[in-house]
């Protein structure tokens, strides 16, 4: 990896994190259920997009450097596994077991499926 790619990935990570902050705020202002819909949507969209970018790279449409910048940088900054896990632990601590299972299993299953879909679409192009 060149210094330029590294620096662009760092900047991309910052942009992704800023985009996550804005997106989460927009979603949570519109939904007041107490469920972390912002994190759920962000991780789902991020999985689809990272799968798509990886598929484009697999089919040589997207250069490996751009996969690093956009996938590792922007999508890495945008998605947030750690926040999802802390949210899940809080649900368990609050004994909201339905939300706990929906969040932990639902997010796992949906994000994997969306990554597979994104990968297939990216490879098909």
List the main descriptive attributes of the protein structure presented here.
single chain; 125 residues; mainly alpha; 5 helices; globular
Q: What does it look like?
A:
The chain has 125 residues and is an all-alpha fold. It has one domain. Helix content is 85%, strand content 0%. It is built from five helices and no strands. It is globular and about 45 Å long. The two termini are 26 Å apart. The mean pLDDT is 96.
> Strand portion, in percent?
under 5%
Number of helices: 5
Q: N-to-C SSE series?
A: HHHHH
Share of residues in helices? over 70%
Mean pLDDT: 96
Coarse shape: globular
* Count of extended strands: 0
How is the secondary structure organized here?
Layout: H1 3-30, H2 37-58, H3 64-78, H4 81-93, H5 97-124
Helix pairs in contact: 1-2, 1-3, 2-3, 2-5, 4-5
In brief, what are we looking at here?
The chain has five helices and no strands. It has 125 residues and is mostly helical.
């Amino acid at each position: 990896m060149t210094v330029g790619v590294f620096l662009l990935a760092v900047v991309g990570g910052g942009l992704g994190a800023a985009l996550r902050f804005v997106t989460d705020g927009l979603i949570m202002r519109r939904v007041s259920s107490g469920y972390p819909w912002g994190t759920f949507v962000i991780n789902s969209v991020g999985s689809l997009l990272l799968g798509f970018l990886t598929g484009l790279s697999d089919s040589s449409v997207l250069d490996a450097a751009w996969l690093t910048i956009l996938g590792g940088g922007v999508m890495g900054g945008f998605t947030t596994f750690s926040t999802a896990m802390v949210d899940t632990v809080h649900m368990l601590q609050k004994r909201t077991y339905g939300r706990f299972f929906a969040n932990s299993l639902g997010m796992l299953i949906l994000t994997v499926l969306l990554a597979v879909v994104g990968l297939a679409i990216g490879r098909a192009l």
